[in-house]
Design brief:
Blueprint: E1 15-20, H1 30-46, E2 51-53, H2 74-85, H3 93-105, E3 108-116, E4 124-131, E5 137-142, E6 164-167, E7 170-176, H4 183-191, E8 194-201, H5 211-226, E9 229-234, H6 239-245, H7 251-260, E10 265-267, E11 273-276, E12 286-290, H8 292-297, H9 314-317
Parallel strand pairs: 1-2, 2-3, 7-8, 8-9
Antiparallel strand pairs: 1-12, 3-4, 4-5, 6-7, 9-10, 10-11
Helix pairs in contact: 1-3
Length: 319
């Protein structure tokens, strides 16, 4: 017996092709990094993707040198100066170019950047932007809490709790790095019934942890919790990034190791990896998503609905 045809109460797409862009920025160069993002948006469109996710702060790159270079080293201030001048205002000329690329490609794109206040000389945020296939900027989400050394260059987010938008296929959401394992951030998205989620990550994180493991565990857990498809987008590592970050013995070994492994993947609503990069470098893994899988999975667990008890938080709110 054939399966019944999908029926919905709204006129939404039931299937969509997803893409995870594992690319490297032109490090601390906003114009060149923006051009690279636009190139990959158009490539995703050529492959008939409906959504493409990009890494954390892909414009103009992630400030990982703060995990290596001493704070009193002149390079720290020089790198911050470069980061500030190559961060972008929203809206601005860079967002116009990205919007144009999305129109050309007819694709939703989630793009990370270092954001600054226009016409000022201070204050940056770690920001995600969601663009629609008509080129409109649909959402700006600033990272709720910068992680460890990120606090030295990025301020806490000021854009509020919403990290999702309604689309023609359901709810598209995004979180940055450690936010993807934040229980309250995940609950917020569950209540908004996220359908496709973009989890954006840096090229690696200085320290004893492997980013490919941390990002994979977080994204699989989040997909299972949200009962959503998760695009797990990690940045690639290039020589211009390495030159800025290598400072002490062991730095080169860690970067070489992180450079060699694939990190980006796409995860289905049961937490299973359905597409991935198995080697380092640039790539664009794709997966066809049957969005009815999100409905079927919620028969078991809907943490924004029938499988939750909000009174569990009552004593915390009344304290």
């Amino acid at each position: 017996m054939s399966a019944p045809e999908s029926t919905t109460t709204t006129n939404r797409r039931s299937k969509i092709k997803l893409a995870a862009a594992q690319i490297a920025p032109c490090f601390l160069k906003k114009t060149e990094s923006t051009k690279r993002v636009c190139q990959w948006i158009r490539e995703a469109g050529k492959q008939e993707a409906g959504v493409v996710g990009f890494p954390e702060t892909i414009i103009p790159g992630y400030p990982a040198w703060l995990g290596h270079v001493p704070l009193d080293d002149a390079r720290t201030m020089q790198n911050y100066q470069r980061l500030f001048h190559n961060s972008i205002a929203i809206p601005g000329p860079e967002t116009e170019l990205i919007g144009e690329a999305c129109r050309d490609a007819a694709v939703y794109a989630v793009v990370g950047c270092s954001e600054k206040r226009d016409n000022t000389t201070g204050t940056l945020w770690n920001t995600q932007m969601i663009f629609g296939p008509n080129g409109d900027l649909l959402l700006k989400h600033q990272k709720y809490v910068p992680t460890v050394f990120e606090k030295l260059v990025h301020a806490p987010g000021t854009t509020g709790a919403h990290a999702s938008v309604q689309t023609d296929f359901g709810v598209l959401s995004t979180l940055i790095c450690g936010e993807n394992s934040n229980p309250l951030a995940a609950y917020n998205l569950a209540c908004e019934s996220a359908t496709v989620h973009v989890a954006s990550w840096p090229p690696y994180y200085p320290g004893p942890w492997s980013l490919d493991h941390c990002s994979r565990v977080s994204s699989q857990g989040l997909a299972y919790t949200l009962k959503a498809f998760v695009i797990n987008a990690c940045a690639a590592i290039q020589d211009d990034f390495v030159e800025v970050c290598v400072c002490k013995p062991g730095d080169q070994r860690q970067l070489d190791r992180e450079r060699s492994v694939g990190k980006s993947s796409i995860v289905n609503p049961m937490g299973e990896v359905v597409a991935e990069l198995t080697e380092g470098g640039k790539g664009l893994p794709f997966a066809e998503a049957d969005l009815e899988e999100t409905t079927v999975a919620k028969f078991t667990h809907d943490y924004g609905g029938h499988y939750n008890r909000p009174e569990l938080f009552t004593h915390l709110l009344s304290a």
